[in-house]
Structures are given as C-alpha cells and as structure tokens.
Amino acid sequence: MSGTENQMTGAEIVLQALKDNGVEHIFGYPGGAVLPIYDEIFQQDDIEHILVRHEQGAGHMAEGYARSTGKVGVMLVTSGPGATNAVTPLQDALMDSIPLVCLTGQVPTTLIGSDAFQECDTVGITRPCTKHNWLVKDVNDLARIIHEAFRIAQSGRPGPVVVDIPKDVQFATGTYTPPSAAPIQKSYQPKTSGDARAIEAAISLMKGARRPVIYSGGGVVNSGPEASRLLRELVEITGFPITSTLMGLGAYPASGKNWLGMLGMHGSYEANMAMHDCDVMVCIGARFDDRITGRLNAFSPNSKKIHIDIDPSSINKNVRVDVPILGDVGAVLEDMVRQWRAGSKTYDKAIQADWWTSIAKWRARNSFAYKASDDVIMPQYAIQRLYELTKDRDTYITTEVGQHQMWAAQFYGFEQPNRWMTSGGLGTMGYGFPAAIGVQVAHRDSLVIDIAGDASIQMCIQEMSCAVQYNLPVKIFILNNQYMGMVRQWQQLLHGNRLSNSYTEAMPDFVKLAEAYGGVGIACDKPGDLDAAIQEMIDVKRPVIFDCRVANLANCFPMIPSGKAHNEMLLPDEATDEAVANAIDAKGRQLV
Amino acid sequence: MNAHLQPTGSAYFIAAETQVAESHTLSVLVDNEPGVLARVIGLFSGRGYNIESLTVSETEHEAHLSRITIVTRGTPGVLEQIKSQLERIVPVHRVVDLTVRAKAMGQERPIEREVALVKVGGSGEMRAETLRLADAFHAKVVDATVDHFILEITGKSSKVDQFVAVMKPLGLIEVCRTGIAAMNRGSQGM
C-alpha cells in the first residue's frame, strides 16, 4: 500500500483496528469525548454497536460476551463519568481474568490537566484495575496501541486493558499500521509451555498418590475448549476425583462419574473433605482464593501440592506448593496426558480404592439436601426445576451475586465450559443481567438465563431497555425472597440476627416493571405452578422478568463457617438456629 | 507457608508471619515510558509492601530503558511475591533480587551506594571542625560562603547516616539523599 492509503483520522484508525482484530460487536455509550468515533460507527456496517443504558452495563456485557465466546470483549465509553462508571467491570474482569478492551474518550490533549469538562485521570484511575493501560498522545501510535491492547488482553493470564484516546487524536490524521506490521512491547512475552522436569515430577507424585484430588479453576475455561477436553482426558486416564471452583464449573461435566461438585465455602461436603484429606492435590488454573481454602493453616494439611498456572504471582501466594508448573493450562495438560500415557509402569487405579470408599461415604451425606415444601417454592427447588427444563437446550446461565448464585452453582449442572458466567472474584451485584445480554448478542438463538436475586437485579435493571431495543430475549429468573439473602445469612451468623438494612420494604412489581420496559413479566409463588411458568418463560421469544417468589428465610448450606477448616462444614441437617448462631467464635465476628 | 499461619477465626485470614522480615535490594529494568514509575509504586502501596529506598533513572538511552532500584523489607515469602508481582507489570523487562544473588555468591549484600548533599552552617571553630570531619569521611566541598558549606558525600547508607549525625551539632541545615544505587559484584550483569 502507498503511504496515502494508510492515512486516516484517529477515529477511522479505531474502527479499522477493531475490524483487523476480529471485532464484530462493541458495547458502549456515546458522549462528547468520543463523538468522532461514534460518527465513524454510524458510517459503517461491519461492527455492530450495542447501546447500553449505563457504562457499567457495557462492561459486564463485554465480559459475558468474552466469557461465552472465548473472544475479547470490547467496550467504548466517553471521558470522565463514562470512564469512572467503567471501573467496576474493569476490576471484575481483572479478578476473574476476562479479556476486555475498554476504549475511553478523553478531553483534547491541550486541555489535559486543566480540570476540563468531563475530564478525569482515566489512566490513573484505571491503573490498578487493568492489566495495562495507555493514554494515546500521538495519532501515529494509535493503531499500534490498539493492536497491543488486544494482544495483552487475551494472552498470558487474560485481563482488561484501557486505551484512553483524547478527542484531538480522534480528529487528527495519521498513519494506520496493520496488526502484522505493528511492533510489540518486548517486555511482555508470557510463557505458555510448562517445564518438562516439573511435569515429570508432578506425574511421579500423581502416580504414587493413594488419595489424589484434582482442583480445577477458571484458568481451564480461559485456556480454551481444548484445555477442557484434556482435563476430561486426564481425569479419565488417572481415575482421580475432581472438584472445581465457582469459576471453573463446566470444564469437567457435572454428570461425570469423578465429579465431586464445587468446593469452598458453599461447596459440597465430599469436595471439601477430599481436599482436606487428600495426599496429592493437583491444582489446575485456580488460585487458592480465600473462599476456597477456608482457614489457611488447616488447609489440606497432609498433601503434596501441584499447581499449574500461567501467572507466576499466583504460585505460592496464599498456599505454598511443592511442584509449581508455570504455563498455559492447555499446553501443560497436553504434555501431562502424553507423559502419563508414555510412562513405563502401568498405572493401577486400585491404589485409590480406599479413597473412593471414603468419598462414597461423604457423598452419601447428601450435603445439598433441603426440606422440600408443597406450599412455598424452595429456592433450591426452583433451580432444580429450571435445570431440568433447560438442560436439553442450548442454554447459557449467568448470575448476580449472593445466595441465588451459590444455589445456582450447587444445583445447576454444567456439562460444557463457557456456559456459566458469574462474578467470582469481585462479587459484583448487578453483573448477571448485562452479562446475559452480552452472551445473547454473541449467541442470538440460544437460551440465556440470568439467575438473579431481588436485590442484585435492581443494580443494573436499566439494561432491560437495551435488551428490548435489540430484541435480545434474555430471561431474568429472580429468586425473590425480599431479602439480601446472603447479607441476612451473615447477620444471622455474626450479628445476633439483627437484620440491619437487609430487608427490602418497597419491592417493585417485577411483572409491571417488565411490561413498562416492553418485556414480558411472569410471577409464580406455588411449587405446583412452577414448571408451567418456567416453560412459558422459555417459550416467549422476548426479554422476560420471572418473579419467582421463594421461601423468604431459606439459607445457603452447607457452609464452611468463618475461621473453620474444610472438614468442619456446617451441614444443612445440623444447621439449627443454635448451631448457626454459635458457628463462628468471638474472634471470627471481628472479621468477615 | 500455610503451616506457619495462625488461626484468625475468619474466612479472611490475616497471616501472622512467623518468618523474619529481611531487607532486600531489587533491581527492576523497565521501558522508560510514561506511568511506569506509578505502576511500580502503585503496586507497593496497593498490596501493602514497604519501600525503604527508591531510585530511578534512565540507564540505556537508545533502548529507552530505565533501572529502578528498590530497597524493600519483607519475609522471604513476601519478597518472592513482590518479585512475581513486579514481573507482571507489562513494561517490566526483568527483576533481580540483588540481595539473593549476593548471598548466592557468598556475600552479605550487593554493592550499594548513596550520594548525599549536606548543608552545614556555622562560623569560627565549628567551620574548621566541619572541614576536618568532612575530610575524614572523604566528603567534598561543592559550595561555600563565609557562613555555610555544602558537602557531597558518597558511600553506604550507614556511612551517610553517620556523617549526617556528626554534622548535626556542627550546624546541619538540610540534607538531600539520592536513595540507593546498587549492583552485584563480579563480571555478570543483571
């Protein structure tokens, strides 16, 4: 190409760079400092722009889009308040390792630092909540920086990045550099293949294990579908039991015979007991988060630990491990499976026989049990019915944050990766609905359901307007108990049942609310009516708010109470009022 | 590591460190670009690490590389975490714990030097004493009038500390220190 062909305005460069990075959808909200880019969006058809109602919604939509497709999610917001409203989803994506490119407008370079209208220090504000960020001061750097933004967002441990583009740079004319010709920052070269000697050491530990367990996480999903396939193969050839974090659900199928269920604070008894009593733990793409480990000094005290992770800072951060393997989960699992098969001595799964006997005993404890009712809908029952009626469809599930999220994780069986979108690290109420819209944009014909709580859903409810505008038939399934259930549960545990501000006195009429936005509202409060109502929700090809009135005071069990170990779970049949009140000692009350 | 932590009675555990904190000197090679120092400092404040000394300057002009020298304090586990966290920063090329490297070579510490400018006022006998001590410390006079000296001193931090201390009774007015520049002994680079 000649020099003049590559000459474009900054705004044109933005669109060209997005196209060259394979972008088909962006989520955004216009404003003064991004008008030139919006003008370019208007004049092209390759990229569809989804107009949100609040920038937080744009971020979570981009996250849901990214998590369900494996692609990078893209958001576009204006300067000042547009950028500050993006902070929550950026931090959310950082903690859950979601690849996100956020383009922000900025006041013209000549006004930066003058406290101009809608000015804020975007790169300063977003520095700790992004993997990296840039302020573009020269239009000739713009293309390179956007290409670099995509490379950094999706390689290594994925994460969010921000490109801050002043308005004069959007108007200025400069040279467009295509991705293939753009120089990369040499200091960032993540390592993907695992060290052969470390893998060797891991396999030798695994082959000698009498009580092994695989503990997998969101890293397996991030690594791509091949990593999930290899994980399944590893479980198959080793015969090891497997549990997963909240973020990793679906990488190994819930119907698999080695599946123990989710682990952690509200995980299954068998998963947590297996973690506590194991002699070899294989942690794959997880990070020993505090909701997983319980009390650290009692965490799996007698095991040798193997940890596969692409991020060196995850190794030995919370828990010291014996065999760290740095690399991409998919690449490491491939080597691991190959070496396991190539090993000289044949492996006899009988070595695990006693272990599986113990696991069978723990499973028989039936830790997710709840008291069924014919009069009121138990929240667990609602999730079970939702699962039964949607499992044979092409379904994606997102959640908000709280009790409903834990019940969804416990009772909805995920068979495939990328089907489950939830805010794990940051715990962002308001995540689920916009995330579901993002998923639906990527999968127009699929069934996308946001399992929500009555409090969480009100944090981003304005996006109903967005769902209706783009004919996105997202279903919001609200487990409505009129409480911030998880807050109330902790107040019962820690604060003498003083339910300070956790009850919602003025609940909106969700059916009318749906109708006001142009969607469909369905309400149900009888267990006997539930199946038909869920079926109606599925059949409607429009956005639906389903107000599922559930038992008001149900709590989420089992639970590892504050300050307790994996083998000190509070089980549902033991969770009397007295046991709940005394579950946490005085010292534990001082902290969360 | 987990075996050393004490129960705290919470799902948020506060690690009661039984390991002893040590002072280490890190060399960090970074691209000299806007915001890189803010990223490094933000990491330390955001994650609650200590900074005892910080020195930054461009060291390779053509390659746009700067070298940041940080003296920090922490247990071996925390120091390892600091190094890993620094390496995650995109414009960071390399992080070397000079203290660990020095110990591997059988030395107590890497070579660490600081420059200080020390302004001392006074008249009469005091001035003679100031000059005599400056000479003993190999400090140079870089500015003087009839009622002050500015002295330049180079050395280990402990030597600078000591020099400042002896100048105090002689009419110390102000001190400016550069922070520590450090490298390992031997022919090998970082």
Task: Tell me what the structure shows.
Chain B: It is an enzyme of class 2 (transferase). Chain B: Pathway: Amino-acid biosynthesis; L-isoleucine biosynthesis; L-isoleucine from 2-oxobutanoate: step 1/4; Amino-acid biosynthesis; L-valine biosynthesis; L-valine from pyruvate: step 1/4. Chain B: GO terms for molecular function: acetolactate synthase activity; acetolactate synthase regulator activity. Chain B: Belongs to the acetolactate synthase small subunit family. The complex is a heterodimer of chains A (592) and B (190). Chain A starts with 6 loop residues before the first strand and ends with a helix. With 592 residues, chain A is of the alpha/beta class. In chain A, the strands form four sheets. Chain A has a six-stranded parallel sheet with strand order 3-2-4-5-7-6. Chain A contains 24 helices and 20 strands. In chain A, helix 16 packs across helix 17 (403-411). Chain A folds into three domains: 4-181, Rossmann fold (3-Layer(aba) Sandwich), CATH 3.40.50.970; 196-364, TPP-binding domain (Rossmann fold, 3-Layer(aba) Sandwich); 379-549, Thiamin diphosphate (ThDP)-binding fold, Pyr/PP domains (Rossmann fold, 3-Layer(aba) Sandwich), CATH 3.40.50.970. The longest helix of chain A is centred in the N-terminal third of the chain and has 16 residues, at 139-154. With 190 residues, chain B is α+β, with helices and mostly antiparallel strands. Chain B has two domains: 20-104, 2-Layer Sandwich (Alpha-Beta Plaits); 111-183, ACT-like. Chain A, domain 2 (Alpha-Beta Plaits, 2-Layer Sandwich), CATH 3.30.70.1150.
Short description:
Chain A is α/β, with parallel strands linked by helices. Chain A is built from 24 helices and 20 strands.
CATH class annotation of the largest domain in chain B = Alpha Beta
- How far the N terminus sits from the C terminus of chain B, by CA atoms, comes to 29 Å
What level of helicity do the residues of chain A show?
A: 25-40%
Number of strands of chain A: 20
